[in-house]
Amino acid sequence: MCGIVGYVGKNQALPILLDGLKRLEYRGYDSAGFALFSKGNFEIKRNAGPVQGLVDASLECGKTETQGIAHTRWATHGAPNETNAHPHRAGDIVLVHNGIIENYSEIKTMLSREGVKFSSQTDTEVFAQLIEFRRREIAKKSEGATAETILLNAMKQAMTEVEGHYAIVLMSQSIPGKIFGIQNGAPLVVSNLKTGALIASDLQAIVPYHNEVCFLPKGEIFVADETGVKLTSASNKGLSFEKIDWTADKVEKAGFESFMLKEIFQQPLVVADTLTGRLPVDQKSSFIWDHQKAHEVLWKNVKRLYLIACGTSSHAAMAAKYFFERWARLDCQIDIASEFRYRSPVFEPGTVVGVISQSGETADTLAALRLANQAGVSTFSICNVPNSTIARESGFQYPTKAGPEIGVASTKAFTSQLTILCALALDVARLRGLQDGKESVQASFTGLARLPQDLDQVLSQSETFMKMGETLKDQRIILFVGRGTMYPIALEGALKFKELTYLPAEGFAAGELKHGPIAYIDPKVTVITLAPKDEWYSKTISNLEEIRARGGHIITIGTEGDEEAKRLSNEFIGLPQSSWGTQPILSVIPLQLLAYGCAKALGRNIDKPRNLAKSVTVE
Ligand code: M6R
């Protein structure tokens, strides 16, 4: 969702700010803006629409200015227009903001009574006006105090009044050469460059400049100048910087027509990276985790597992339920985070809560994690962004190594999540002494080891999948069906399809077809059926017969050489036969590419589908 960039130093600020905004576009936004500190005042530009519009409107700006803040806004309060775009000016200060101010309406009423006039509908302007109002009040009572002390006191005072999770970054007209900000639950990453200080809401805007970063702690006010970033808290905690192995080339398209296509093709590599150093020498030995002892204690004592996530990540959780139940005989309950956080989940001794999130910043998933942490149960996370809030707040982590995922529609993060979950469930079965005699366990060990190779083989048919996708653009609705581990993959196929094409698409358990969705079937309806040669195969084949009998158009994703499924389908995609645990990972690839091909034929914005945000940091 919204993105923040700030720079103060010796270099020209505007190119750094605009480059940062472009790198944050993937988060989803509908307007953008910047403010430069210029000749004792602010030069502010805002634009509804793409960052490129802002770039085009700024050709004559920022030739000499070395200090500025910038923002991409995903509208929450007020329409996505220029007036509501950030930065917002309030008297002496100019401010950008991520997150939501929950009590903005009360504060606005209070400030209006005091004569403050507002020019936008945003909660952000309310925050800016509140700081300015307090700054003026404090200044009257603090003769002799510096402008900086007065501003910092005003920010502290505003923090006590404002409710919500947020990050703000601001400049004051009275304090040249400095940028200030607060991290209060929405991430801010900073880096001290040789030429100054860089601040952003997201690693992507920083890594092209420096790979040593610090995620600011929650509840802290910072000040940045050309010498770097400092916290202002009384405890004066030093910042700890760490090296990130994300490099600039990892956030480029590398010759692909879109980030999403690049990310689809990266899947063999990132799955290999996710498994590197973790696979055991043999089935009797442990997988290798970063915190081996804690991992073993946790899983030897587990009685119930909750896996919580949103969107695509929740489909990974659903597939994992099959693994944990079958291999580890563990009660595994799945919930989407936005429901879990408001239910009354039962936390008993032995309950473990695992949260799954690509971004590690999803507001609902974070709230679910906090609920579990408060209840005192053990928690872990499967996250893709190192040091994200969810990663930091979970008991321990099983990181995926998919690298930066820029396409809003998740692909490589999903396959990496499934890979980790498959490995984890196999290891938990070993720890619980339950591996023996299960054919699917042995096969899935082998399946994991050869997964990158199998994924390569599936991707070699990418052109065919995309062409097939093109043919779906005139269908009335696309249904995705599967049984067992293919059911969550069907849901994921439908989600990818609707996200990218904006066409109606629904996923079902194949066995549910006859309980309602079969009413959809006619020749303008395509049913994409996941029918690998697994234990549910014959049942899924019966479903194919039922769809065929009603004239539905059938695309089957099955196993290479399956003549029976081919005969029953209008089109057939044969995949290599993998294992029970890894087949779902192979089967989602054609679904990603079908959606891609169809969206391309419809001229959709593939990397940034309308209305969606990469990182959903508000409820
Ligand atoms: O970053 P997270 O994995 O927590 O995000 C969860 C969902 O918002 C995300 O998977 C969303 O459904 C994607 N757009 C899927 O492509």
Key terms:
globular; binds 5-amino-5-deoxy-1-O-phosphono-D-mannitol; alpha/beta; 37% helix; 3 domains; 22% strand; 619 residues; 6-stranded antiparallel sheet; Rossmann fold; Glutamine Phosphoribosylpyrophosphate, subunit 1, domain 1; 8-stranded antiparallel sheet; 20 helices
List the helices and strands and how they pair.
Elements: E1 3-9, H1 13-24, E2 31-38, E3 41-48, H2 51-56, E4 67-73, E5 88-90, E6 93-99, H3 104-113, H4 123-141, H5 147-161, E7 166-172, E8 179-184, E9 189-193, E10 196-200, E11 212-215, E12 220-225, E13 228-231, E14 242-243, H6 259-265, H7 267-275, H8 292-300, E15 304-309, H9 311-328, E16 331-336, H10 337-340, E17 351-357, H11 363-375, E18 378-383, H12 389-393, E19 396-397, H13 412-431, H14 439-449, H15 451-459, H16 462-470, E20 477-482, H17 486-501, E21 505-509, E22 525-531, H18 537-549, E23 553-559, H19 563-568, E24 571-575, H20 583-601
Parallel strand pairs: 15-16, 15-17, 17-18, 18-19, 20-21, 20-22, 22-23, 23-24
Antiparallel strand pairs: 1-4, 1-10, 2-3, 2-4, 5-6, 6-7, 7-8, 8-12, 9-10, 9-11, 11-14, 12-13
The structure holds 5-amino-5-deoxy-1-O-phosphono-D-mannitol.
Please give a structural write-up.
With 619 residues, the protein is of the alpha/beta class. It folds into 3 domains: 3-97 and 167-250, 4-Layer Sandwich (Glutamine Phosphoribosylpyrophosphate, subunit 1, domain 1), CATH 3.60.20; 253-458, Glucose-6-phosphate isomerase like protein, domain 1 (Rossmann fold); 461-606, 3-Layer(aba) Sandwich (Rossmann fold), CATH 3.40.50.10490. It is 37% helix and 22% strand. It contains 20 helices and 24 strands. Helix 9 packs parallel to helix 13 (412-431). The structure holds 5-amino-5-deoxy-1-O-phosphono-D-mannitol. 5-amino-5-deoxy-1-O-phosphono-D-mannitol binds next to helix 9.
